[in-house]
Amino acid sequence: MSRPLLTAERLSVSIGNTLITDSLDLRIETGSCWGILGPNGAGKTTLLHTLAGLYPMDGGVIGYRDKSVADYHPKELARERGMLFQAELSGFPGTVFETVLAGRHPYLGSLGWESPEDLEQAAKAIEQAGLKGLEERNVQTLSGGERQRMEIATLLTQQPHIALLDEPSNHLDPGQQIVMLRLLTGHFTSENRALLMVLHDCNLAMRFCDHLLLLKGNGECLAGSTRTLATAENLSWLYGHPVTLEQVAGHACLHFL
Length: 257
Known about the structure:
With 257 residues, the protein is of the alpha/beta class. The chain has a single domain, classed as P-loop containing nucleotide triphosphate hydrolases (Rossmann fold), CATH 3.40.50. Helix content is 32%, strand content 28%. The strands form 3 sheets. A 6-stranded mixed beta sheet has the order 6-7-8-3-9-10, sandwiched between helices. A hairpin with a 2-residue loop joins strand 4 and strand 5. Helix 4 crosses helix 5. The radius of gyration is 18 Å and the shape is globular. The N and C termini lie far apart (40 Å).
């Protein structure tokens, strides 16, 4: 069995009086890609933020590589886990290159100067995200899709061991959704890394994720392999609406009835 990068034991999370998870056990191992699915208001984003150490839990333990999230220094934690937020956070003026290069901040020394390797890493991530030629563009002039790809490039530049993504396909056209998810899964399911992402599109989750966490929104959840959990029965239960599944070009596709 491979080494877990992120674990949750007996994790309980709530928003006000609404229970999101109750005694959830989760083990995300190297090379895996997990998708969180659930209806609107189920607490997917809140759970993701809790696992990142950004939202308080009601009970349980969260660990990164056998060390409690509470025991990490913020800069050290930023080398372990990276976040892609659903809301755009790049509110300050700056160029695309400057913004992407900020992903190297957790690795900078006391003087705060980037090395040639840091500059090279940022340039590589920009090219991977399809933004080559836009390095000097002000981020405030970018379209929503360009900004999303810039955030993905910043995450790749950060090089964390595990990435926690909140709706990574936001603002992207269908073609770019496939391209960017291929990029992210290709990067984070290799070299002792892993990926956990919130998705609304079940078809994308079934295509790219090998494990799923189905979050009902009342404390009930199911966690396991996509092959086991991605059934018409489970997804009908999850969304409270009948669905069917069929195979198209080798991929499972969901249809709401």
